Amino acid sequence: MPANPLTDPNWATETTDKLVSIIDSVRAQTTQKVVYAARGAVFGVISALLGTFIAIIALVGLMRGFQALLELAVGWDRAVYLSYLIVGGILSIVGLVLFRKRNAAAG
Fold first, then answer.
1. How many CB atoms lie within 10 A of CB 19?
2. Inter-residue contact 11 to 3 (CB < 8 Å)
3. Which residue among 29, 47, 83, 93 has its CA within the 20 to 30 Å range from the CA of 12?
4. For residues 98 and 22, what is the distance between their CA atoms, to the nearest angstrom?
5. What ranges in 1-107 are assigned the alpha helix state H?
6. Domain map of the chain by residue range?
7. pLDDT tens digits for the chain (107 residues)?
8. Considering the entire predicted model, what is its pTM?
9. Do residues 82 and 74 lie in contact, with contact meaning Cβ atoms separated by under 8 Å?
10. At 72, which helix (H) or strand (E)?
């Protein structure tokens, strides 16, 4: 009788192996998926923060570049205002284009 621990010398190892395989299966279906989801959330937040930081730094650099370029043609005060006008106009046009495309897939 193989299920009888008194007559089967491999009963303990077989039972332990069966329990370990069941626990590994349950762990693979639950814990690993949660770990992958948590990693994805953490890396997503980090990449969103870094992307925002890079966009802000690029916008500041663009403004300073326009100001330095425009200062060659006009005074510093006018260069600042003109750079704000140019970058603001570009961002407004981009915003209007994206605003018009927001429902393009639905219609």
1. 10
2. yes
3. 29
4. 52
5. 11-29, 31-71, 76-101
6. 11-101
7. 456 666 777 878 888 888 999 988 888 888 888 888 999 999 999 999 999 999 999 999 989 998 999 999 999 889 999 999 998 999 999 999 999 988 876 65
8. 0.59
9. yes
10. none
